[in-house]
Amino acid sequence: MEVPLKISREQTVHLCLDLQRLFAPGAPWATPWMTKVLPQAVNLCRAFKERNVFTRFIPPATPADMPGQWQLFYTKWRDLTLDRLDRRLLELMPELQDFSSTGIIHDKSVYSAFGDGRLHGILLERKVNGLVMSGAETDVCVLSTVLDAVDLGYRVILAEDALCSSSDRGHDALMTMYRERLSLQIEIASASQIIDVLR
Predict the structure, then answer these.
(1) What HEC string does the chain produce?
(2) Cβ atoms 157, 131 nearer than 8 A
(3) Mean pLDDT for the chain?
(4) pLDDT-derived band of residue 1, with 50, 70 and 90 as boundaries?
(5) Where are the domains of the chain?
(6) CATH assignment of 9-197?
(7) At residue 58, does pLDDT exceed 50?
(8) Can you tell me the distance from the alpha carbon of 54 to that of 149, in angstroms, rounded to the nearest whole number?
(9) Residues whose CB is less than 8 angstroms from the CB of residue 111 and which lie 6 or more positions away in sequence, other chains included
(10) From CA 34, how far away is CA 25, in angstroms rounded?
């Protein structure tokens, strides 16, 4: 997909997904190259000023607090439920703290930022119809959020150098899928290209 020619700042937000200590290198769900993409996410935050939305993935207190297969998931990751987890790991990365104070922090318990409907309502109230996305992980929470955003009719622009995964193969496969199967609904550009066309 060609680089988007125009991005309206008034109708677009930067949706920064799950760039938390929980996924930082050395953390339980480490995404090793988060530190490589974090500067690009910070540049997008700076460009969008107060129009940043930050999601945080928040585990349940116990596996029984989630439905169905989530219980199996958290039985495997029992030490990452809230009754055992070091809650400092839920915080956004330090580089994002200043921006989050003027943006929106949206906590979620599932992969998609749109999972419970709250974020969609907030964006509708603000007349947002476009999303520039950064964050983790390309093939999990970003994937789930992207597909929901497409279904909801948002313009989706992925900042390809501001996305990361713990799986290189998963990341590469999803970027290929976005380009080859969803190119009419998903645009892909670098963070610097996106910033250059903001108006």
Answers:
(1) CCCCCCECHHHEEEEEECCEHHHCCCCCCCCCCHHHHHHHHHHHHHHHCCCEEEEEECCCCCHHHCCCHHHHHHHHCHHHCCCCCCHHHHCECHHHHHHHCCCEEEEECCCCCCCCCHHHHHHHHCCCCEEEEEEECCCCHHHHHHHHHHHHCCEEEEEEEEEECCCHHHHHHHHHHHHHHCCCCEEEECHHHHHHHEC
(2) yes
(3) 95
(4) very low
(5) 9-197
(6) 3.40.50.850
(7) yes
(8) 15
(9) 57, 140, 141, 143, 144, 145
(10) 7
How far is 13 from 41, CA to CA, in rounded Å?
A: 13
Of 102, 171, 107, 108, whose CA–CA distance to 136 is shortest?
171
Model's pTM, two decimal places? 0.95
User: What percentage of the chain carries pLDDT values higher than 90?
Assistant: 95
Give the C-alpha distances (Å, rounded to integers) separating 90 from 43, 57, 108, 162, 166.
Answer: 22, 7, 11, 20, 18
